[in-house]
Amino acid sequence: MKAENWFRHPVGIIVSSAVATLLWGSAMPVIKKGYTALNIGASDISEQWLFAGYRFTLAGLLLVVFHYLFQRKKSGSSQRIRKGRLARLALIQTFLQYLLLYVGLSYSTGIQGSIIVGSTSLFQMLSVRMFDSSERLTFMKISGLFLGFAGIAAAGIGNGNTEISFGWGELLLLGSAMFGGVGNVLARQETKHEPVLSLTGRQMMLGGIMLLIVSLPVTGFTPFPMDGTTWLYLLYLALLSAAGFGLWNTIMKYNEVGRVSMYLFLIPVFGVILSSVILGEQLSGWIAVSLSLVVSGIIIVNRSVSVKRVNLLKSKRNTP
Fold this sequence. Notes:
Elements: H1 3-8, H2 10-38, H3 45-75, H4 83-107, H5 110-118, H6 120-127, H7 139-158, H8 168-190, H9 196-219, H10 228-254, H11 257-260, H12 266-279, H13 286-318
């Protein structure tokens, strides 16, 4: 089966989306363990940015090398977007998204963080209207979004986070979610002009370098020891970033944004489950409710897309 057929097939979409969101969901507990191992505190903002900069620079380099070694001949090495457009994508999808995310997480609490991270899906579905007027936010899609938000709220409540507030941390996370949603849609548009792995790797590496530029003057190159433990965390986070964004940008390239955006709600759900496994945090029965709501939302959105396609085929057949 060709790559395009796999990423358009319902099974391929489900499996690929689940893998991408599972990888992203594992990032948070691994980052927390990395912070503990490297003695990076909540107030050490520049060190957090440096850690993120090393992570995404390495992830981008891995994707660029992989593309050069295995896919350059298939896709054509001359297919590249202009430097200005690459810088715009790197600024939005990597630099600004994670610049705000790493700081926001230091000041936010559980349920708000889960809900706001999940709102990337909403921003993705809204921002696609700027690039593709044929995609509409229908009643079925809105219903699916509502169930998705209810699902991640249930995950937060089940994790013991019931306090409701909105401060700087939540505002920064909201900004990160917005840049993430817009960046995903922008990447989808640019994959029409450059292969996914090449584009994702180059923008991620450039975004990582941007994070290094803002952090290095404050921290220097090694505020934490660059030993085997540090490289273990960096390598895993780089690999999950490379694989996660590579998969997701490919899914986005071949499908309607409204159809696949709902899968982003799985990130905080997987995050809660993996935090229990990796960090030893308590896991409650609410996670089953959360997964049920998220999956219901995904089914509703995908059903609305299927009905739309059936109606479109019928109208074509009836056209003389």
